[in-house]
């Protein structure tokens, strides 16, 4: 370390400042690396490394032909990657190229300022990808580093002080940033939220999550994602565990291994299978903050009100109630949503479906799972089900399947191994052979067997349960709470929920325990510390989301109400902004006036003397001493200035002579009056 510091201290200023600037550029570009093509990151690293080598060896910068070759190469690769040179991804890729190449022609101060301005723009562009708290902190640090580089570029080297210090430049940049923070906060609080300005930034879509299709055995990928999916806050007590189901994609089509949602586009059987909905009892009202998902479905607590085709508008996204009572979006949810909704735990749906409408919920692939279908036929042929009406028969068959799960050695596990490798009949292998699985295995087998016994059934995916501990006043639902359950149709009652997972693993449903992957090293060594650290970070992140990211136009109007505006609107908001601008302008003018005045006692005395004598028509050089002023008075105006000249000589002696008294200011005022007379 000592050797590195010694080497750093021996560097010439040009080399040291170049290395510092290259480090700042690297910090600014780093957040974009995940979103740029791999060749862009590699080529940018080569260019910056080349510039660092030239600075370290004190070699001249390359000629313009080299830069032209790199520009052509970079532009061509950008076109091949994006098929355009316009747009967010292509534009940021080209900006990164320009910033890196500009370091190879830093021949004047104006070149450095081009690099600084590109850096500020790329810092702002980070929020096009993410608005998370780490992104904000990193952006603030990058801004500080860029300002330090700007200050350093304007600090001259002198013979007395030598090469300017980077630490001093950083301190000046920090003080400048601190002065700007109050203005930034005021503008954030009062600047109007006008779409689409506040709708452009979005969070990156998660790598795991629910989907409009479910492959047999694929849900353990979701279980390995312990990140937060949503946060909830109820107006009253939360619902009991058996009512904590969040309805997501409904899957009805099965090809023997993969479940898929029905095609709900117009003209594609949209009206054939629509479910009517009736709710009863008191409503549960709650606030939900939903993290970005990769599905075009809004998972709300069952059962939110609204018939098929009704709409739910949120910002620039409108959800439509689908035929299976899920809320469909025209595109995947890629931004964080905050909404206040209600749910009715007592509900029933689908009572008026006819056989034609139920046909899709009885369909099974031909030739698939023959042993499981034979087992189901044998169960349905038992005498206890003979003579039952269709409705009671369906309920008795569902109860028999759940009883079979409880009585046999089925095991609920996150690592059941892969199905379908030895045989394509995955339901046969699970139900009759291995009997190892988690929610999707049990729900899939349940639905297939119910259909085999001529009972319409389908799979519903979503989330079930939440963390036992409140986090900052919110219930936390994680991606690991992803769940699959079944619904089967009963004549006279409609669709009934059945969760086979509860039969084999009651803790998963009754206690809301999510699927959990194996914890990391810290989680194994000290689970309590790991949970506390994770909870603290998630609480801080939630505060950031609630207070900053979710700060909306309505929050601005609520603030105006507290400030005394009776009917806050855009006009009132404009008046508040104008008032703040005037206040800031006045404060700035007062600061400039105060800072221009002398602040030490001797300077204030000299300024006061100049004012008194200036009123008498005497102008004295500000840089001279009181004794020189006395001589100038005698020389210019003669005997009438003698009292003032003697007072100035007394002031000179009081400042430099030992034990000399300071003259009285009244004498100078009297002398000034004599001069004016």
Question: Summed up, what is this model?
Answer:
With 677 residues, this protein is of the alpha+beta class.
Task: Report what the structure shows.
This protein has 4 domains: 10-190; 213-517, no CATH class; 553-596; 601-676, no CATH class. The protein is elongated, with a radius of gyration of 38 Å. β14 (411-412), α13 and β15 (436-437) form a beta-alpha-beta unit. Mean pLDDT is 79; it is low at 196-208 and 266-272. The longest helix has 27 residues, at 570-596. Strands 1, 3, 4, 8, 16, 18 and 19 form a 7-stranded antiparallel beta sheet that branches. A 4-stranded antiparallel beta sheet has the order 12-6-2-17, with no helix packed on it. The chain has 24 helices and 19 strands. It is of the alpha+beta class.
| Strand content range | 5-15%
The proportion of residues forming helix, as a percent range, comes to: 40-55%
Secondary-structure content class: alpha+beta
Gyration radius (Cα, Å) is: 38 Å
DSSP strand count: 19
Kindly list the characteristics that best describe this protein.
alpha+beta; 4 domains; seven-stranded antiparallel sheet; 13% strand; elongated
SSE layout and pairing:
Blueprint: H1 2-10, H2 13-29, H3 38-57, H4 64-82, H5 88-102, H6 109-125, H7 133-153, H8 166-190, E1 213-215, H9 220-223, E2 228-234, E3 245-254, E4 258-261, E5 277-280, E6 284-290, E7 297-298, E8 300-301, E9 311-314, E10 317-321, E11 327-328, E12 337-343, E13 346-349, H10 355-358, H11 370-380, H12 390-407, E14 411-412, H13 426-434, E15 436-437, H14 439-452, E16 457-464, E17 475-478, E18 482-490, E19 494-498, H15 500-504, H16 506-510, H17 521-525, H18 527-549, H19 553-562, H20 570-596, H21 601-615, H22 626-637, H23 642-656, H24 665-676
Parallel strand pairs: 14-15
Antiparallel strand pairs: 1-4, 2-6, 2-17, 3-4, 3-8, 3-16, 5-13, 6-12, 7-11, 9-10, 10-11, 16-18, 18-19
Helix pairs in contact: 2-3, 2-7, 3-5, 4-5, 5-6, 6-7, 7-8, 8-20, 11-13, 11-14, 21-24, 22-23, 23-24
